[in-house]
Design goal:
Order of helices and strands: HHHHH
Number of domains: 1
Mean pLDDT: 78
Radius of gyration: 26 Å
Low-confidence stretches: 1-17
Structural class: mainly alpha
Strand content: under 5%
């Protein structure tokens, strides 16, 4: 078979598929997802370092980039879901990339969980420390004075929120 006949066979195969289902498009979308996942993993590692150093200012600069990458990755993942066939008719290269993407997604989940756990632990620590500092201003749950409002006794402007 000549090169021209091979190309013709490929183009007939491509014509039978919708444009978004062409193998090149699937491969490009998978490649884009892998790149976004790799960048997101890098940002999550950077976030972990910033959190452990308690550099809130640096974290504020990192969050827009993280939000952009998460949104981009979600959009690319949705597109990839539409492009991937439901059966296992993928070639070996695409299957390997798909497995690599699944591994990267697991790593993203693990890093997110670790960062979330660190944030919760740090907030609990500071909440406990502040409760010790504010103890003279607040009544104990076991004392008769507990009927008074704790918020009325606490200094204004001091609060701890666990919201992430």
């Amino acid at each position: 078979m000549t090169q021209r006949q091979e190309n013709y066979g490929d183009s007939r195969q491509k014509e039978s598929l919708p444009p978004e289902m062409h193998p090149g498009t699937l491969r490009e979308c998978l490649s884009d997802c892998l790149e976004s996942a790799r960048q997101l993993i890098g940002v999550l590692h950077e976030e972990a370092l910033i959190l452990k150093a308690f550099k809130g200012h640096d974290l504020l600069h990192l969050l827009p980039r993280k939000e952009f990458l998460v949104t981009q990755f979600a959009d690319q993942s949705e597109r990839l879901k539409r492009l991937l066939p439901s059966d296992d008719t993928l070639d070996a290269g695409i299957r390997d990339d798909r497995l690599s993407l699944k591994a990267q997604m697991l790593e993203i989940r693990r890093l997110n969980a670790a960062n979330r756990s660190f944030i919760h632990g740090a907030l609990e620590y500071w909440e406990d420390l502040l409760s010790l500092c504010l103890a003279p201003y607040a009544s104990s749950a076991y004392s008769p004075a507990h009927s008074r409002s704790v918020s009325a006794l606490a200094p204004k402007g001091w609060s701890v929120s666990k919201e992430i």
